[in-house]
Each structure stands twice: as C-alpha cells, then as structure tokens.
DNA polymerase III subunit psi
Amino acid sequence: MTQQDWYLKQCNITQYVLRNTNVFKGEIAPHISDKIRLIVVAKQQPTQKIYLDILNAISLTQDQVLVLTPSQLIVPANDIKTVIWFIDVKPEESWQNPLTIQTASLDQLAKTPQQKRLLWQQLCQYENYFHPDRT
C-alpha cells in the first residue's frame, strides 16, 4: 500500500479503479444516427479502392457509414438495426445478429472472386436496409 493509499484510507475515501481505460482515449460507443446505413467494424479506417468501390456500388456515401474499431462496438447486438460489416475482425459469440456480414481483409477480398461474389450476394440481400425509402 502506497502512502497515498494509506492517507485515503485514513480519510475514509473510497478509491475507484477505471476498468475501461479506453473511455479516456475516445473509444466509447458512439451514437448511431438515423442517417447511418452501414456500420463497418475494422481495426482501422478502410482506405482500399475495393472498399470505396463497394460503397459506390451499394450507393452509400462515407457519411452514411460508421466505422468502428472492435473496442468501440460495445452496444448489444440486439440494439443495432443496421447492417454490420466485420472486415478482418471475428465478432464475439455474443454478437449474433442477423444483419451481420463478415469478410477477410480487403486485400484478400480483392484477390478472391468467390469471396467477392458471396459479399455481393449478402449486400444485395440487405439492400432494403441501405435504402429504406426505396420500396
């Protein structure tokens, strides 16, 4: 016990331990606005051409996409009603959501026609979520 700890104990002051230090780093679950049509979970902001091509193909702007790191995704799966695309990130088992797409890295995706085809089929399946005003 440090001297500071001893003084606090003598003054009957309870010390708290911050369990999630990412709170101070800005890694907090952000508010998901109504304009967001796709949530991308990746270790870093995707910048590859294939990513921009995919957004263009499904007619989404970058303003309509929320990019999160895995540590920022702390909202329960049931609370999210938006399509979530995990890029080179394996979702936790508690993250069972029917609106989930999971792919390998974008570099690998660009080289594998079968994976691109599967992704395109999934994206087409969720078209109504990307553009709910089109019926």
User: Anything to note?
Assistant: DSSP finds five helices and four strands in the chain. The radius of gyration is 20 Å. Residues 113-125 form the longest helix (13 residues).
